[in-house]
Description:
By secondary structure, the chain is of the alpha/beta class. The protein folds into two domains: 41-267, CATH 3.90.550.10; 291-457, Hexapeptide repeat proteins (UDP N-Acetylglucosamine Acyltransferase, domain 1), CATH 2.160.10.10. It contains eight helices and 34 strands. Strand 8 and strand 9 form a beta hairpin. Residues 45-48, 60, 88, 108, 111-114, 116-117, 135-138, 173-174, 187, 189, 191, 206-209, 235-237, 263, 265 line the site of uridine-diphosphate-N-acetylglucosamine (UD1).
Amino acid sequence: MYRPVAGPHAALPALPHAARAPSGEGKVNRASIPGVTPAPTVLILAAGRGTRMRSRTPKVLHELCGRPMLLWPVHAALQAGAGKVVVVDSPERALAEVLPEGVQLAVQPQSDGTGGAVVAAMALIDSDAPVVVLSGDVPLVSADLISGLMRAHAQSGAAATIVSTVLDDPSGYGRVVRGADGAVERVVESKQDGDASPQELEIREVNTGIYAFEAGALKRALGSLTAENAQGELYLPQVLDLLRADGAVIGAHEVKDRRLVLGVNDKVALAEVRKLAQRAIHEQHMLAGVSIVDPDATVIDVDVEIGQDTVIEPFTTIRGKTKIGADCTVRHSYIVDSVIEDGVSVGPFAYLRPGTRLRAGSKIGTFVEVKSSDIGPGAKVPHLSYIGDADVGEGTNLGASTITANYDGQNKHRTTIGKHVRSSVHVSFVAPVSIGDEAYTGAGSVIAEDVPAGALGMARARQTNKEGYAERRKDESLNSERR
Ligand code: UD1
Ligand code: MG
């Protein structure tokens, strides 16, 4: 039967957490990061308008490899052992429905900046635990990065530690300004003219929007934020200035792998981040023994499971919570929320819709659509068919152009086809209808009544041949020309 790939802790070359939700999804555990006690409160800022996406959908709900962007940092935080995860949402509370159980929501009354977002979560910040701030639009942050930040923050004793990285093209990001001694002084914004000086714009070390804070220091500084800047917003990085003015030390945790901290502000960046996430997903499957013939021409969502020695040929898309067993071949097909057992052959040009189950050794061939159906072991639907709301028994062969008429315009009905049935070609099954084991149906039949086991069901007009027809036509056309 179906064997999944290695679990979420399996090492992944580029993006270690990209795999799946940690087991016991959503349950916030108190298992702390080694060397860091107590477990941190993780705030994920996600209430911004995301205007640069030019979309009616909130930015952080845009889909990234089968999961809303927001859930990537949520899973990373849970996997890193967060004590509490708080997502900051706008008053529409559009994010509430996607959050896993146990993740809390804070509402930012108006979009007054990243500082305002943290202020909105103030009541949920415990004084005795460190605080980690993540951005809902920096989705590839990993659990390892969060734990590394927590360790660095705990060891340095800084009031705040900012995660930075160096980018070739830092445009749009806040720049990290360091003093002559190399210590972090502040972050200057560049989204709008007026905050950063031309020299500061030359800096390539950027703020990733990820930070660790000592809870008490953060709470004190939040009360003093001002909106005297180019965007007239409360900037969270101003907390760093305020803490420093108070004599506190600001740490920096520089991340070398910039891919983990790319921010998504528009759909161009979303596509770049998707490419990286997709690559990590592919690599995890390939390292677990799946052949992906051309990764650049294959889409696989993050929660898909695929067994060993399965071959995925180009131009295949596998979405949602699809599970594919071992030793399968999938050619040029589109698969959504389906279960495919071992040794199954799919495509080319198959469309498997939600609720499809293909049992071991079965085959779905060319231009075949299947929906909410169970295809028995070794059964075959080789060509040009639609199988919807059907149960098909072991070893049955449904010939070319077999169609289940499952919808009467109001309700869906099931078709039940027994074991070792031969349907011949161009047969319609008008549901609800049942076909017994080892039955046959005649080519071109419209089967609207049950066929008993072992019987032949025929439902088509009888053929009549008109002898000499062609000759008669010739005669008639000659006569009409003479007239
Ligand atoms: C922010 C940082 C910038 C950093 C960059 C990294 C500030 C002022 N700037 O800029 O230094 O280089 O991230 O990606 O913090 N949000 C709210 N409420 C708001 C505004 C934003 O919750 O009122 C959320 C957004 O939903 C988003 C995150 O905060 O998830 C960052 O906001 P965004 O507007 O994207 O900030 P950047 O311009 O990217
Ligand atoms: Mg951003």
